[in-house]
């Protein structure tokens, strides 16, 4: 279920910018706003580990790996959100200097490269991710969590969603004139 904060943000962004929030944007927002709650969990687990290690002299065997696992999930899903905000690297000096037709060409080239990269990663990683998931591959440590079994398929899913979000951004940007271009800074207010 999408929480109230997410619904309010969707309505605020759509009404403020006159940009439609379609299902692709809703999936990106839902994932990113759900995953953000893992960050306080990471902080609490690390504080617990520090307390156990340096106060009680009984370090945990699982805290560091759990934090790496959760942070990896945050990192992967953060890529989808960054793509939605169009905050990935762009040569702004050149991009802002050229006219809108040339910017559209740059956007198209960028999207094609992202889709080709995503296709290569998914094609190359599918077999390994499938094997890791179906055999429930573990991390091979004392705690032995199923990090590879979960992170490999999640990586492919996130790369796919980044490509879909990139195509969605291209379509939205091409439908709107330059004076109504998407401004991600308005979404964060």
Share of residues in strands: under 5%
Terminal-residue CA separation: 23 Å
Helix content: over 70%
Please tally the β strands and state the result.
0
Question: What is the tally of helical segments?
Answer: 8
Low-pLDDT runs: 12-17
Q: How would a crystallographer describe the biggest sheet?
A: none
Find the structural class using helix and strand composition.
Answer: mainly alpha
Using only C-alpha atoms, the radius of gyration works out to 20 Å
Order of helices and strands: HHHHHHHH
Number of domains: 1
Q: What is the residue-averaged pLDDT?
A: 87
Written description of the protein model:
- This protein has 189 residues and is mainly alpha-helical.
- It has one domain (4-187).
- It contains 8 helices and no strands.
- The protein has helices at residues 4-17, 23-35, 38-54, 63-84, 92-97, 100-134, 147-175, 184-187.
- The chain starts with a helix and ends with a helix.
- Mean pLDDT is 87; it is low at 12-17.
Topology readout:
Elements: H1 4-17, H2 23-35, H3 38-54, H4 63-84, H5 92-97, H6 100-134, H7 147-175, H8 184-187
Helix pairs in contact: 2-4, 3-4, 4-7, 6-7
Keywords:
mainly alpha; 0% strand; 189 residues; 74% helix; single chain
Summarize the structure.
By secondary structure, the chain is mostly helical.
